[in-house]
Design goal:
This protein is an alpha+beta fold and 446 residues long. It has 14 helices and 16 strands. It folds into two domains: 102 residues, Ubiquitin-like (UB roll), CATH 3.10.20.70; 321 residues, Creatine Kinase, Chain A, domain 2 (2-Layer Sandwich), CATH 3.30.590. Helix 4 runs parallel beside helix 10.
Length: 446
């Protein structure tokens, strides 16, 4: 049952909260925060909180003139911040939507972009659920708390790690539970120092809120242990990078019945599911800049490290872009597909919005699904299969983003312009920088 403003005020009094952290994200997915004393909470719940909206324009150098906007709290996201409580400053967190002075949702609010995509699905009689698998590295820190590129452990995939590492992941799960985030599983990943936390299936908006909260929470818990948690896609060369594999499904909005299951299909997939996958593949090149938004992201998306590069799908094939986990006929509601190209540095609101819009476009246009690829694609010549590849750089990905009308419309012209501006600056900085690798390789030769 949705919470009321009176419920939140009473709960904050019972919990003896002193401060309220009003959180939102900028276009690039970075968490922003306005803190108010709890005495201001009733007024905040009635009228919102005004702030300088230029802070959400991303990282573009030429920021627009200051623009007043206000935060509208989502009452269902109220939760105590566990590490602030133990520090002696009882604080509650509320995630907010951003509105313009005229009362309308702000065109640059990523959360609003996801809400719009969800509304489109609802108009089609569908609900959209996702379950992200979040991979990350734990590195050691120096005496000033700055990260060192030194993994915290030497374990591998599913290893029973040292007590220290196991206990840190358990602390993270406990902190996530305090925010009402249900963890399905956690384990050590392939690379040394690499870990994974899998979140339970939830509606897409709630899942995006959970991803943002998870990133903040894991960094805070790691810092308490003298470590640094990073969601950088490829912090170490020669080992697997970190992905954000997103399991997703559609259900009938009235009955809750899975729209992805068909007992008569060899893969257990309905026509709706097949069109949805076809939509993801058709728009993969256009949305990859949103799903893998860093220069560094494209050092993960290379053959040989369990990261997809070919526009393909399959059941057991972890080199495919879309994987269909085995379906249990007795549990048709578990039918889902897994998109494997996103990484944990992305803005989850924009990421889930473009995934949903791409899939819905496939359904609306009844796009045909190509045959599955079940062999290891890294061991075959993709030209013989006539498979396209994802862009190999952020610069190429940004071109594809601007040329994909469906994805551009999914995030809107305001977000598109500022996202591309910020990311083109990042790409230009990278491509004009002379790295140590180039000096080592060429200086003595030429």
């Amino acid at each position: 049952m949705p919470r009321t403003a009176n419920d939140i005020v009473q709960l904050s009094e019972q919990q003896r909260v002193e401060f309220i952290s009003l959180q939102f994200t900028d276009i690039l997915g970075m968490v922003k925060n306005v803190t108010i004393p709890v005495a201001q909470l009733p007024d905040c719940l009635d009228h919102g909180v005004w702030f300088d909206g230029s802070s959400i324009e991303g990282l573009a150098r030429n920021r627009i003139a200051e623009n007043d906007m206000y935060l509208v709290p989502d009452l269902d996201t109220y939760a105590l911040v566990p590490w602030d409580d133990t520090a002696g400053f009882p604080t509650a967190r509320i995630i907010c939507d951003i509105h313009s002075p005229d009362g309308r949702p702000f065109a640059g609010d990523p959360r609003s972009m996801l809400k719009r995509a969800i509304e489109e699905a609802q108009h089609m009689g569908m609900t959209y659920h996702v379950a992200p698998e979040m991979e990350f590295f734990l590195f050691k820190s120096d005496s000033d708390g700055r990260p060192l590129p030194v993994p915290h452990d030497e374990a591998g995939y599913f290893d029973a790690t040292t007590d220290a590492t196991t206990h840190i992941r358990r602390r993270m799960v406990r902190a996530l539970n305090a925010f009402g985030i249900e963890v399905e599983a956690t384990h050590h990943e392939v690379a040394i120092g690499q870990h994974e936390i899998d979140l339970r299936y939830t509606p897409a908006l709630q899942a995006a809120d959970h991803v943002v909260t998870l990133r903040t929470t894991l960094k805070a818990v790691a810092q308490q242990q003298g470590l640094y948690a990073t969601f950088m896609p490829k912090p170490l060369a020669g080992v697997d990078g970190s992905g954000m594999h997103v399991h997703q499904s559609l259900a009938d909005a009235q009955t809750g019945r899975s729209l992805f299951y068909d007992a008569n299909d060899p893969y257990g997939l309905s026509k709706t599911a097949r069109h949805f996958i076809a939509g993801l593949l058709a728009h993969a090149r256009g949305m990859i800049a949103i799903l893998a938004p860093l220069v560094n992201s494209y050092k993960r998306l290379v053959p040989g490290f369990e990261a997809p590069v070919y526009l393909s799908w399959g059941r057991t094939n972890r080199s495919a872009l879309v994987r269909v986990p085995r379906i249990i006929p007795a549990r048709p509601q578990t039918t889902r597909i897994e998109l494997r190209c996103a990484d944990p540095s992305c803005n989850p609101y924009l990421a889930f919005a473009v995934m949903l819009r791409a899939g819905l476009d496939g359904i609306k246009r009844e796009l045909p699904l190509q045959p599955p690829a079940e062999e290891d694609l890294y061991q075959v010549d993709p030209r013989t299969r006539r498979m396209e590849l994802l862009p190999s750089s952020l610069g190429a990905a940004l071109v594809e983003l601007q040329n994909d009308e469906v994805i551009a419309q999914a995030i809107g012209p305001h977000v598109l312009e500022r996202f591309v501006d910020a990311k083109m600056q990042e790409w230009d900085d990278y491509r004009t920088f002379v790295s140590q690798w180039e000096l080592n390789r060429y200086l003595s030769l030429y």
